[in-house]
Amino acid sequence: MEPVLLHGTLHVTIYEARKVFGSGCSKFCCQILENIDNTVGFGKGFCKLYAGIYLQETRVGRTRLLQHPHSDPQWFESFHIYCAHLASNVIFSVKEDNPIEAVVVGKAYLPVAELVDGKEVDKWLEILHKTRRPRHKGSKIHVRVQFFDATKRHNWSKGIGSPKFPGVPYTFFSQRSGCRVTLYQDAHVPDKFIPEIPLAGGKHQEQHRCWEDIFDAIFNAKHLIYITGTSVKLLKKDGLMATHDEDTGSYFHDTKVHCVLCPRNPDDGQSIIQDIEISTMFTHHQKTLVVDSELPGGEPPKRRIVSFIGGIDLCDGRYDTPFHPIFRTLDTVHRNDFRQPDFAGASIHKGGPREPWHDVHCRLEGPVAWDVLVNFEQRWRKQGNEKLLLQPGELDLILTPPSPVMLPEDHETWNVQLFRSIDGGAAFGFPEAPEDAARVGLVSGRDSVIDRSIQDAYINAIRRAKTFVYIENQYFLGSSFSWKSNDVKVEEVGALNLIPKELSLKIVSKIKSGERFSVYVVIPMWPEGIPESGSVQAILNWQKRTMEMMYSDIAEALRDKGLEANPKDYLTFFCLGKHEREMAGEYVPSERPAQNSDYSRAQKSRRFMIYVHAKMMIVDDEYIITGSANINQRSMDGGRDTEIAMGAYQPYHLATKQPARGQIHGFRMSLWYEHLGQLDDTFCHPESLECVRKVNHIAEKNWHLYSSGNDLPGHLLTYPMEVTSNGELTELQGTEFFPDTKARVFGSKSDLLPSILTT
Fold first, then answer.
1. Which residue ranges does the record assign to the PLD phosphodiesterase domain (predicted)?
2. What per-residue confidence (pLDDT) applies to 36?
């Protein structure tokens, strides 16, 4: 059977299997291995069985491990699986776990043809050898499967749809109403940075200052200050991951500040040997601050919880404004805050350019702020000393219970939902019973349950999207199951998050129905680090394959529709850059970079990329997701880096027939003003062909100015590549390498670094 596109949700239950025999591991053999395990202390266990769910070669779900029963294993686990895959069969693979790698016991096949009409299939499937020959008589597995087509669901392309939208289903945290959200662009915004941006009800967009608000929140806290971060900067000394972790702990030694340095021990589904290789390479990436704060309108005995989440770490190099200077503040604001990790040996003594930093953050008030507190408590109880936390009885004495901070009739009220990428190895209190875990969207990993609700939130938002999606993110790669094979075994890459494929499939559906839809993606020129290095080049290569997959989908849809449109009329990528001509009185460095280095070339040309560290998506100006999660597998997997994000909307702005003109719209327009250096009426309709072409034209013009060494009216640059009519990516003429470097724009495949680290 030819593969069929399964784009939607699979509801799967794996009940049990009969007459499943392992790879020959006898009871005596298992006992020996378990004794070794107890002696060595890996704690993984041996001789265990699990069942994986596959669409072609891509694993989309798995059960928990069962101790080798030498009988009939019973899992009784249910799954809600988002899918966007070509497949002929849903494959159930029974595997025996061992220290080196899992061994396939047998596979059962359910033809996709039995599922596409949406009917529930409940049956026993014969378990075959991996060569599809019969195994033992009576060897079978009991499953129930039902497929729900995304394009036929009631919420497909309908946006939020209603002020009573209940939020993303099957998540650990429910959606909270009566909240207030404050959105921040960059660490600081000067007064009168933007012209007036009109909002509904005669209001205008207000600017807020992230680091000033964070300082005030910490300074005014009386009972608790809870912080999670990749990098909390206090002294100039790097920890294991160059994030100042060790010196943060040293700084607070013998004080009332309790600091836990907790390396990430991920549940990434790897074998014990693989775990040893990569266990130090993943991070706790959440960036949260939780404080007690006074109640609005006075100072009664009790206080409330206020939380901050987003992309900005509390460390060096993050302070910046929407102007993003690269030379002109080296003797003032950035004299003691110089950061430039993209050049070897860079320092303030050798001069600029500094690495400018663009980011997005938010403050949460109301019931959702307590969910951020719960996240901190779960993490601390897992990896810290529980006695150091304020206990529930103490909290009751000093805090009001979770309650709305805005009334339902207030036009500025928000509904907010918290999402995470995290597993039971990093968070205390996850439900252990499979049915309880499934109800809150948790999935089985190798050794614990996993929360990957951030990816679920992105998928849900894209499927609901009506007219446009605007993304800013530090990385953009995924959906490797749909990449062109060429010189790589895509099934071994493992960048399985659905976000890029969901975006291209949404565009394809709109082309088929004759509707406009636009996707704008802003990413860094290259990932932070030496641009010629193996890791950066590998990531750029994955990024190129992701982009090409998406453009190929769009080009095919245009051909099928008989349209001669440019794929960039629907999907377009940008980066940010800054050029500063030299001015009298500037800082003069005492040293110079090495001749003929990237550093010296960038210093001479007076230009550098603005590093995009934001992790944000805006949909239809109605809904926003922002937090710490990148669009890559590390952030979206749940069993790799730990992440946190929120999804939010303002109900009032969905109750009218007019396009949403609330704070999300105002925030996007403010970001566009920062990047484009102008406002235009066409920017109010990002889905329109007029808008996407205008933005592309401005960005292309800016690239020519940037590459020729001239000042720019804005920061937005077209990403340096061409897209052919069949969706292939080619080099922009004269731009094989990024300006001032010897780093290839499209990167190069690494044969040394495992893909699990660079995806």
1. 280-318, 608-635
2. 57
